[in-house]
Amino acid sequence: MDVKLNVNDKIQLSNWIGRDCQFELLYKLSRDGGTPEKFHELCDGKGPTVTVLYNTDNNVYGGYTSLSWRSEGSWCKDELSFLFKLYTNNRWEPTKFPASKIKTNTNVYFNSSYGPWFSDLRCFDKYVGKTSGYYSLYKHALFCGSDYDMGGKNVQSVANGHNNVTDLEVYLVKDGPLELDIAWRDHPDWTIKTSQKFKEYITNYEPFEESGVPEANVLLIGQVGAGKSSFINTINSIFKGDISSRACTGSAEKSLTKSFEKFRVRDPATKRFLKLRICDTRGVEEGFSIKSEDLGFILDGNLPNHYTFNPVEKASLKVPGFIKEPSLKDRMHVVVFVIDGSTLDVLPEGILKKIKKIKSFVVDRGIPQLVFLTKMDKVCSQVERDIDNMFLSEIVANTVNKAAEVIGIPRAHVLPVKNYEKEGELRTNVDILALSALRRALMFADDFLENQYDLEQENAHAVNAKE
Ligand SMILES: Nc1nc2c(ncn2[C@@H]2O[C@H](COP(=O)(O)OP(=O)(O)OP(=O)(O)O)[C@@H](O)[C@H]2O)c(=O)[nH]1
Ligand SMILES: [Mg+2]
Questions:
Q1: Which of 140, 175, 210 is the last residue of a domain?
Q2: Predicted local distance difference test score (pLDDT) of residue 133
Q3: Which H/E stretch holds residue 130?
Q4: Which residue minimizes the CA distance to atom 30 of ligand 1?
Q5: CA distances, 149 to each of 252, 306, 348 (Å)
Q6: Looking at the domain assignment, is residue 289 inside a domain?
Q7: How many angstroms separate the alpha carbon of residue 230 from the centre of ligand 2?
Q8: Same structural domain, 95 and 233
Q9: What is the pTM of this model?
């Protein structure tokens, strides 16, 4: 059964209702049919309910009543009733519209001939069927503000001016802690032991021995402000044991990172640098972007550390320190697309196109790829409250699926992370996510090095055989 109200929505509704709630689906228009009889059969006398409408423009809105639906009666006053919107054009914009204190005596209507009716939100009063993929519900006086305080919003800003819905659901609101979903992906325990295990792996990491490469090169690529530099700072902080900010981060329209930087991470415990470089790049923007040629140079190891990207001219042999004949150690061994999970739905077409082009460059060279999905705390309030909920959140699962689809990468290669940004001190669960993501990147880098080694061996045999 396709239930659309997700965990984040339920948490938001619980907050508005003012207590911990569980939500049991009583009625679903697409499943139970659009008649007032069926609605009353399934919903009457049950207790408080929330009615949720999903319109064809991806606006999600509805109403809550603390009273049980009934088949007889008429207008009633429910001071606890409210209208709300959760999404506007698919954007999470939760807003509550409380029952008006001054304007009305009544705001909920009970009658066997009508479906859910909250005065300013009326649904149906006779059979409503699906035509052209949607149900055309009542829009008369919709969100007109006669009995609910709309705070300046109206039918246009809440529902794009119509009430054509793909579905309508009525949930019984019961007392009790929100039931979390079962984990959508196996994940390690959120313990210090787990964090130490990952840290040890990275501390002891040596690139595939036969390759002769001293450090694995992990390249971070992604849109402006996705959190590339923050990821580097997160890893650096974990090893330093305190929040640090070596790479410049922040919010700006244009990329804050202007140059190619191959960061080393030092382990103070051993006073040695880790055998890896995390390479930061300028963010992908709609106007300016890394030139394809420059990207090719980075992947192939031609560009020197600290090279400043030039918006007008591609890199060339003239660049000081340009490596004319790069070896395997100079090349990129794994590419990580850093994607801002909180803006995935509104990722501009132009940026997506550029990312796909970059991806094709990476694929052509046989370099393994991963996606780090950042800002998951902004995607799901349940995760914001507690990072331990990362693999329980349905929203995170959906965002991971979407990223996999959009970027064109297996779902298992999309790793949700949360960078250090507002925190004043380290947190075990943040560490675990970042360390396990980096560990995976190093494993992928080793796969690449092993492939390259095999290739070299095969080529050497072929040459020998010829001679
Ligand atoms: N809430 C939240 N904010 C984040 C996260 N990661 C990064 N940020 C914030 O996002 C903003 C941009 O982060 P940066 O690390 O500078 O992004 P970038 O990809 O390096 O951007 P450019 O160098 O400009 O291309 C900063 O204000 C960070 O604090 C995250 O996981 N959660
Ligand atoms: Mg940056």
A1: 175
A2: 93
A3: strand 130-131
A4: 375
A5: 36, 56, 35
A6: yes
A7: 7
A8: no
A9: 0.69
Task: Please list all protein residues whose beta carbon sits less than 5 angstroms from ligand 2, which is an ion.
Answer: 228-229, 256-257
Assigned domain for 182 exists: no
Give pLDDT < 50 ranges for the chain: 1-2
The protein residue with its alpha carbon nearest to ligand 1, atom 8, reads: 227
Quote the number of domains for the chain.
Answer: 2
Residues 232, 150: one domain?
Answer: no
- Classify residue 9 by its DSSP letter: H
d(CA 311, CA 293): 12
Shared-domain flag, residues 148 and 237 = no
- Of the candidates 327, 457, 342, the one whose C-alpha atom is nearest the C-alpha of residue 396 is 342
Write a three-state SS string for 99-114.
ECCCCCCCCEECCCCC
Q: Look at residue 341 and tell me if it is in a domain.
A: yes
Residue 248 CA, closest ligand 1 atom number = 16
Q: Are 65 and 81 in contact (CB under 8 A)?
A: yes
Whether 383 lines ligand 1, by a CB cut-off of 6 Å, is: no
Does the C-beta of 225 come closer than 6 Å to ligand 1?
yes
Residues 310 and 392 both lie in one domain:
yes
pLDDT at 1: 37
Ligand 1 contact via 228 beta carbon (within 6 Å):
yes
What is the CA(348)–ligand 1 centre distance, in A? 18
Q: What is the pLDDT of residue 180?
A: 63
Which residue's CA is the nearest one to ligand 1's atom 32? 375
> Token pair of 156, please?
């246009």
